[in-house]
Fold:
Amino acid sequence: MTPRDCLINSFQAAVKAAASEHIVPPHLPSPPKGRTLVVGAGKAAAAMAIAVENNWPENAPLSGLVVTRYGHSLDTNRITVIEAGHPLPDENSVHASNQILELVKTLKPEDLLLCLFSGGGSSLLSSPVEGITLQDLKTLTQQLLSCGATIQEINTVRKHLSTIQGGRLAMACHALVKALIISDVTGDDPTHIASGPCTPDTTTYAEALMVFKKYSINPSPAIYDMILAGSRQQLDETPKPNDQRFNQVENIIIASAHQSLTAAQSFFQQNNIATLILGDTVTGEAREVAKTYAALVKEIIHYPQQLKPPIALISGGETTVTIKGDGQGGRNSEFLLSLLIELDGLKNVYAIACDTDGIDGSENNAGAIITPDSLNRGKTLNLNAALFLNKNNAYNFFQQLNDLVITGPTYTNVNDYRAILIT
Structure:
C-alpha cells in the first residue's frame, strides 16, 4: 500500500466510524404508548432517518420530517426528507423549520419526539424570529462565516435570532424528547450542534452583541436593534439550564471526532504504523495550525529519539479561515497548502486533511492530500504556492496537481480529519 493510499484509507476508516447505520441503532428508545415523531436537521439527517426506519418495529407508529443539505437526501419510507440551503439558509430552511415546529406542537404526553441532529443543522434549521427577514439572516451568516469567528460564537448569535434553536424546539413539545446527535463541534457540547434545538442555552444576547463588536460585524438594523434590546434585558432570553421543562429532554452524543480518530488510529496500527493523536479539539486559523504541525514534523525527523517513523500524527477539530482573498478553498485545503509551504519539500512526509462530511467549505472536495514532491510539481506548473495561499485559493492549487480528495456526500459529519504520515 502506498503512503497516499494509506492516508485515504485512514480517512475512510474515520468516516465509517461515524456512519448512521452503525451508531444510531444502539441508542434507539423503545416505542412509546402513543406515536413517535421523528424530526431532525443536518448533513446526516437523511441517513439517520433511514437507520431509524430500518430498526423501528413495523407495527409501531412512526412519522416525521428531517431537513438536509441539497444533494444529501436519501430515499425513505415513513419519514419525509426536505433539502435546504447550506452554509447559507434559504426558503426551504425556513419552510422545513416551521413545519417541524407545527408537527411538534401536536404531540401529547404519551408520545415521543425523536430528534436527529448533525453538523450543518444550524443553517438547515433556520426560522428567524419576527421582524428578521431571511435576507437579513443570510447576510449576517455570510459575514460570520468569513470573519474567522468560531462555530460557538456564530451559534451564540444564531440562537438569539431563531424560533427553533437554542432549546426552543424542545420547549414547544409536550411529550418526552430524545435527541440523538452526531457532533461536529469541538468539545461535543450539544448546545452548539445545530445550534442546540433541544438543549438549554447558556449564552446571552450580551454575548451575541460582543461577537458583533469583536469581529466588526455590521448586521442589518433589525438584527442589531433586536440583539441590543435583548442585551438590555428588554426581551426574553433563550431557555436556560434551570428551566424545569428540560427534565423531559435527553440529549445523547452518538458519534464524535474522538471516535473517528480512534478508528483511524486502529487502521494505522494494523498496518504497523505508530500513531499519535494530537487532539480532537484543534481550533485556530488553519494556516497557523499548519505551521505548528510542521514544526512538530521537523522535530520528529531531526530528533527521532522518542517518536520514530513510520508514524502518523492524527487530529480533529475545526480550524477557521479569515477570508481576505477571492479564491476557492476550505479550511482543510488551506491547512494543507500552508503545511506544504512550511515543509518546503521535506522528504518522507505525506498528509491528508478532509472534512468528514465530504465537503471542504463550499466546494466539491472533501479536502486534499500532499506528498513530498507536491511543492516541486506545483513549481513545474508555474504555481506559486504562497500566492495561492494569500488569495485563499488552495482548492485551485490542489486541483491543478490532481491532489483533491473527492468523495461526494458521506452522510455524516464529525468535523475535520487530519493525518500526517512520516515514513
Observations:
- The radius of gyration is 22 Å.
- The CA atoms of residues 103 and 385 lie 52 Å apart.
- The chain has a mean pLDDT of 95.
